[in-house]
Write a structure and sequence with these properties.
With 282 residues, the chain is α/β, with parallel strands linked by helices. The protein folds into 2 domains: 204 residues, 2-enoyl-CoA Hydratase, Chain A, domain 1 (Alpha-Beta Complex); 71 residues, Lyase 2-enoyl-coa Hydratase, Chain  A, domain 2. The chain is 44% helix and 16% strand. α1 links the parallel β3 and β4. α1 packs parallel to α2 and α2 packs parallel to α3. The longest helix has 19 residues. The chain is globular, with a radius of gyration of 19 Å. The C terminus is likely disordered.
Length: 282
């Protein structure tokens, strides 16, 4: 993997690093355990939009700093605010979570510490969650007389089932990584010191794959879960046919015949195109 470039990317609480085709986005608000302020949400939105347009980024790692991944919303912003301001905060959070989930590139949450409330919801928008043994997960909004508003009642139920989700939401209890792994929420639990290396290993493997096929795999699986099986299977075959005719498809087959590693992405499609461009023939 090539040497990286580091930066603040214009926001005081975000650190970015480009390692070859892997983009690392680190939330750096250690004094607040990474809590999501309105300003931080706006900064994350801008960064995610930039990643979507990036021609060099094929995989993304989202992580935190110190003891916090993201320890929920910045509750201080709720204090004595108007209902209108509260609702605007929720709308901006919703945009952020949806934009993250819909990134064409695969996203890994490398959860280093507390992932509570909006932090847990942010991780659930990622394709993979690798957890430090020191991480903790939960949806504690019930203790404030509130409920999750960033997908906690919906994305978690779709991953772990309704019963366990109801328990977490209605009690607000905190979960250790081993329990979350057993419920199918996590990809892996690792020693804290190995978190970055494990996340980079997975990101590197994703980035080495045929970029259009990787993006299409993400879209097919996510969309297919919301479709009738027959329609999803038909869509799968349509995409496969187009991939077979693509430069990467031809390169992969030729490399197999010639017994050499494939070189993917030399004629990659326009990175500005929407991920459904293959199916639509754009």
């Amino acid at each position: 993997m090539s040497e990286g470039r580091n930066g603040h990317n214009g926001h005081q609480n975000l650190r970015t690093e480009q390692l070859g085709a892997v983009r690392i986005l680190r939330i750096d608000r250690e004094d607040k355990l990474g809590a999501l302020s309105s300003d931080l949400i706006a900064g994350l939105e801008l960064e995610i939009r930039a990643i979507r347009q990036s021609r060099e980024t094929r995989a993304v790692i989202l992580t935190g700093t110190g003891r916090g991944f993201v320890a929920g919303a910045d509750v201080a912003e709720y204090h004595e605010t108007s209902t209108e301001a509260f609702e605007e905060y929720q709308r901006s959070s919703r945009r952020l979570f949806d934009d993250l989930e819909r990134l064409p590139q695969p996203v890994i949450a490398a959860v280093n510490g507390f992932a509570l409330g909006g932090g847990f919801e942010l991780a659930l928008c990622c394709d993979f969650i690798i957890s430090s043994e020191k991480a903790r997960f939960g949806l504690p909004e019930i203790r404030l007389g509130l409920l999750p508003g960033g997908g906690g009642t919906q994305r978690l139920a779709r991953r772990a089932g309704a019963s366990w989700t109801k328990e977490l939401v209605m009690t607000g209890r905190t979960v250790r990584p081993e329990e979350a792994l057993a419920r199918g929420i996590l990809t892996a639990v690792v020693e804290h010191e190995a978190l970055r290396e494990r996340a980079l290993g997975l990101a590197g493997a994703l980035a080495e794959g045929a970029p259009i096929a990787v993006r299409e795999a993400k879209r097919l699986i996510d969309d297919g879960l919301q479709q009738e099986l027959g329609a999803a299977l038909n869509n799968e075959q349509r995409v496969l046919s187009r991939l077979f005719s693509s430069p990467d498809g031809r390169e992969g087959i030729q490399a197999f015949i010639e017994k050499r590693p494939p070189v993917f992405g030399t004629q990659e499609c326009d990175a500005h195109a929407e991920p459904e461009s293959i199916e639509n023939g754009a």
